Amino acid sequence: MARYKALLFILCLLLVKPGRAQTDGQIIVQKKITGLDQYMTYIVETEERHKDSLNFDPNRFEHFKEVEIFGITYYSDGLKVRGFLLKPGKPGKYPAVIYNRGGSLDFGSLTSHHASIGLGELARLARAGYVVVASQYRGNGGSEGQEEYGGADINDVLNLIPLLAAVPEADTSRLGMFGWSRGGMTSFLTLKRTNKIKALAVGGPSTDITRSSIDRPELLKWWQTFIPGIMENEYEVLKKRSAIHWVDELPTDVPMLILQGTADTSVKARYTLEFALKLDQHKIPYRLVMYEDGVHSLKGHRDEVFDQIIRWYKKYL
């Protein structure tokens, strides 16, 4: 009887197929999107709450036809995180850019018209000759996990580096980063933890959210719903996410392009100026471009904004 049980156990082991390991940065779903109609269908299928995206201005998607766009899901800390991958339409090897979106939860999602920089505009960057990848972050845009606004979600950005390494068209020896608003904060936090980034561009960057919470009390109330530990020690938690307090920890060999509107009510221009002075103090190379009467999204300056970004990457990537 014992011999029979042993044989049965061995047979079961032979019949069971080993599961595939969950590797951080591994793409597990990749769906090609070939046009605006497919994009709209994809976002409704992916996340029902984003039906508001049907209000998108179609003109923001004029670059779609010259690039390849994929909705992706990848592993990050074992979570299934959603995002997008964009490639130039012509075969070849291209420098790569990680884009860090702004906002939190639905607000600022790449599948929402609230985004400062939308997917159609990232297609402009891909069209210029860059492989672009963007995460929705955990807890956002249909991703698993919990939003932490600069906490464990930084791993979702770091895990895009091995993801790009597996993309044949991406030259990760020429890797840039691009962030807007919260995405600027995310970019600075990422720079502290990797030496793979060669150049950075940020717009309306959140550099000191300890003061943003005072200027805009509604933000603090919003953050209290998802930032871990904020109720116990608000200032220290926000300080850890505010690059102006730890500029000395940023790399001195990653040139930064900073784009800021003087009429920005979300991130005040004076905060960005103070941050630039700190960069200067620590001999971190940067270029600051101020747009007169520019709002947080720099709407109305987009052509110039992308001209600046593309020239920056052409110089340093």
Structure, explained:
By secondary structure, the chain is of the alpha/beta class. It has one domain (19-316): Alpha/Beta hydrolase fold, catalytic domain (Rossmann fold, 3-Layer(aba) Sandwich), CATH 3.40.50. The chain is built from 11 helices and 9 strands. It has helices at residues 2-15, 36-46, 119-127, 154-158, 160-165, 182-191, 209-215, 217-223, 234-239, 269-281, 302-316; strands spanning 27-33, 67-76, 79-88, 94-100, 131-135, 170-180, 199-203, 256-261, 286-291. Strands 1-2-3-5-4-6-7-8-9 form a 9-stranded mixed beta sheet, with helices on both faces. Strand 8, helix 10 and strand 9 (286-291) form a beta-alpha-beta unit. Helix 7 (209-215) packs across helix 8. The longest helix is centred in the C-terminal third of the chain and has 15 residues, at 302-316. It is globular and about 45 Å long. It starts with a helix and ends with a helix. The model is unreliable at 7-20 (pLDDT under 50). It comes from Agaribacillus aureus. It holds the Pfam family Peptidase_S9.
Can you tag this structure with a few keywords?
317 residues; alpha/beta; Rossmann fold; nine-stranded mixed sheet; 11 helices; globular
Estimated share of beta-strand residues: 15-25%
The span between the termini is 69 Å
What's the total number of strands? 9
Q: Which series of helices and strands comes N to C? A: HEHEEEHEHHEHEHHHEHEH
On the 0 to 100 scale, the average pLDDT is 88
Architecture (CATH level 2) name: 3-Layer(aba) Sandwich
Query: Helical proportion?
Result: 25-40%
> Strand count, sense and closure of the main sheet?
9 strands, mixed
Can you say what the CATH homologous superfamily is?
Alpha/Beta hydrolase fold, catalytic domain
Rg from alpha-carbon coordinates: 21 Å
* Count of alpha/pi helices: 11
Broad structural category: alpha/beta
Task: Assign the CATH topology.
Answer: Rossmann fold
Give the overall form: globular
CATH level 1 name:
Alpha Beta
- Total count of domains: 1
**Cross-sheet strand order for the largest sheet:** 1-2-3-5-4-6-7-8-9
InterPro entries: AB_hydrolase_fold, Peptidase_S9_cat
Domain Peptidase S9 prolyl oligopeptidase catalytic: 122-317
Pfam family, one: Peptidase_S9
Signal peptide: 1-21
